[in-house]
Write a structure and sequence with these properties.
The chain contains six helices and six strands. It is of the alpha/beta class and 172 residues long. A six-stranded mixed β-sheet has the order 2-3-1-4-5-6, sandwiched between helices. The structure holds guanosine-5'-diphosphate and magnesium ion (MG).
Length: 172
């Protein structure tokens, strides 16, 4: 794709604890696959994917495992138009860390950034630790859009990115 053919260039950044499925969500959306194998992303896996959504150019930033240290560098947040704040519905800890991520957002992101709260791994319903109601209440209190996904089963992944792109275009 050529740079000149686009009216907008949006930057979407995925954040959240290691292991919640950020890399798998990006892979599912951009490549249509769920990578086999275990474990969270390690250093070499850093990706910036450029995709076209609704005719607009969107760069999706995944992290390279720095989220292990809880603090992502400022450059990740800089000029982000949207953030996908991800937790794992089967991992209470990943939900409990959300306020820390929100503090980072407040500190580093633009005050115009659109943040979406995503509870991933809904295919593991029998292992659920975070109820939909809790997450919905939390997201409402923070004025965030909230969605549950499965990168594995491809549930709501397309919707997540397409809805976000639509909102970005409408608010641009
Ligand atoms: P990241 O550290 O947030 O980038 O997490 P990864 O995308 O590397 O995924 C961490 C682990 O969770 C891997 O073992 C994935 O296979 C698994 N995983 C990611 N998304 C899902 C999902 O939707 N369902 C299930 N069952 N496992 C998932
Ligand atoms: Mg990762």
């Amino acid at each position: 794709m050529s740079m000149e053919d686009y009216d907008f260039l949006f930057k979407i950044v995925l954040i959240g604890n290691a292991g919640v499925g950020k890399t798998c969500l990006v892979r599912r959306f951009t490549q249509g696959l769920f990578p086999p194998g275990q474990g969270a992303t390690i250093g070499v896996d850093f990706m910036i994917k450029t995709v076209e959504i609704n005719g607009e150019k969107v760069k999706i930033w995944d992290t390279a495992g720095q989220e292990r240290f809880r603090s992502i560098t400022q450059s990740y947040y800089r000029s982000a138009n949207a953030l996908i704040l991800t937790y794992d519905i089967t991992c209470e800890e990943s939900f409990r860390c959300l306020p820390e991520w929100l503090r980072e957002i407040e500190q580093y992101a633009s005050n115009k950034v659109i943040t979406v709260l995503v509870g991933n791994k809904i295919d593991l319903a029998d292992k659920r630790e975070v109820s939909q109601q809790r997450a919905a209440e939390f997201s409402e209190a923070q004025d965030m859009y909230y969605l549950e996904t499965s990168a594995k089963e491809s549930d709501n992944v397309e919707k997540l990115f397409l809805d976000l792109a639509c909102r970005l275009i409408s608010e641009a």
